[in-house]
Design brief:
- The chain is mainly alpha-helical.
- It is built from eight helices and no strands.
- The relative contact order is 0.08.
Amino acid sequence: MRLPSAPWLTDADVIKPSTRVAQFYAGQGDYESALPWYQTCVETTEAHLGKNHPIVATSLNNLALLYRDQGRYAEAEPLLQRSIAIREQHLEANHPEVAESLNNLASLYELQGHYTKAEVYYQQALSVKEQQLGSDHIDVALSLNNLAILYTAQGRYADAEPLLLRSLSIREQQLGTEHP
């Protein structure tokens, strides 16, 4: 199922239909139905845009997350690594989308118990977000929280606590103290 090449077809049009259907299925926990849609998205974006386009990186990232959620870690890892490489090449190493892929790779390593690797990638993602979005951005709070959860899983409570407090402070500042 390849999309035709047409002047009216934007790059975003290539990824959206397959991704939305895949997200619909994955959101219901129907990973087997989501899988061919994510795979088609990767194939279509590569065919339409080339193997190293930033939108291909997004489709690889999405497929990798599905594999991660299915416990197919060995299949997810190279897709996330490729997503990072493409994004660094086209968007520079300190772009928020690079941070997204770094965070996802860290999450994959954390699920596998590879805490040292996970910490490196969580810290890189946090650094990129702080540089690009500012130290009080809500996405920085999420990265702080992810790193703190990793530390908690390792029993490193003294390392986790200041990160959690900073994350909470950012969320209260950005969302208000009454936000769920």
